[in-house]
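Class prep. Protein, please:
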Amino acid sequence: MERTGAISIGARRAAPKAAIVLSALAALGLAGCSPVVETDQARLCRMTLPALAPSDAALDVLSETPDLDGRGLYVAFAALRPDGGPERHLAHCRFRAIGRPRESRDLVGLSFDGETLGEARLFALVRYWLATPEARAADPAPLGDLSRAQPMPRPAAFAVQMAIDGLPLAAVYALLAAAYSLVYGLIGRINFAFGELAAAGGYAAAMTALALAGLPPAPLLAAAFVLAGAVALGWGYATARCVFLPLRNARGQQTLVASIGLAVFLEELLRIAQGDRTAWMTPVLNQPFALARSPGFIAVASPMTLVASAVALAVALALVVIFRFTRAGREWRAYADDPLAAEMLGVSPAATTARAFALSGTLAGLAGATMTAAFGAVGYALSPTLTLKALAAAIVGGIGSLPGAFLGGLVIGVVETAWSAAFPIDDRDIAVYALLIVFIALRPAGLLGSRDIPQGPLRQPRP
């Protein structure tokens, strides 16, 4: 009887705690289901404002509020006229379906200050305004309080803008270059399939974002990056087990030829599995904000640009921890320095190599997820370009050196961005490969690389 009473008292005490936990979970669930502003819907709706507001008014977007069903939003803005005070207006846009609009015609309803536009006016607006470059240039994107932006001369503000624009590219190239260096520093071989692993990670991120559409950006991006890394990790491990380890005693160019064949196989596999068309990921955290200002120019950044940089920095710090403080890192360093001595001391060549390929695959998958989240698209045809540019970044930084890989990615990203700002963008690949030729001719070890290049088979034979 006493025991029953104790149990009932404990249950009564536990009930409030359980209620608190359930309430918290319910609140999190409601937060996850709450609608968020779809950035392309907001952009298309804002592009209609210059056509509806007075022609001599400067527009200031005040708020963007999504509809509960995710198929539209309200845009509140102020029209600032030279001869009077600000006029507040409200536009309401409705779209054909939930999610990212594919074309201007997906805008199926529009009201301005409570007055609904007729079908003829809406058709004319979509056909003769939204589909033009002038409409995209006139988008009154809310940049926040411009007075908080750092004032600076125009050339300096332009340089800041170019540096910000180059951060996502530098992050992608740095992650892929680190994957190259991780494998080459261990076995002295180049894996030409990292571009395909990055594309697989990008597809995984895009599909995860599609499946979790409607979640807040933080859990959505976290899930997309985790799944992208997991998919590429599996592919990297299978690459080691099926291709590189069976050729561990090969000499000459057998491993190089097998790596190229693997890249072709994986590219075709992605084409057959995902189709010829580019896969799109709904943009998240891409609302721009003012960073610096000068007369006639405003340098802007987006949260996604900072997220891409943060991912690359976090991976760099994680690699430092792994290789300096874990047993797997010590085994990798020992095997890279002296394979035979490491094997005699109990280091398994097969396990060390497989772990290195799995980790490098994870890096490639994170690079693909970063590219997809930052630029919004991924396709199997991008993999050869990613492979060559990431290899260029690894060589420039010093192939085999992980710090050099991140430095090389930053250099290649800066070169691409600077060339695109000053010269025709179609020729930027020529600039990257010309820089690669210069480094191979004048400094083959790269910026931080060692001149001691690993030679011989993947596994040293026992005497």
Observations:
- The chain has 16 helices and ten strands.
- Residues 39-140 form one domain.
- The two ends are 77 Å apart (CA to CA).
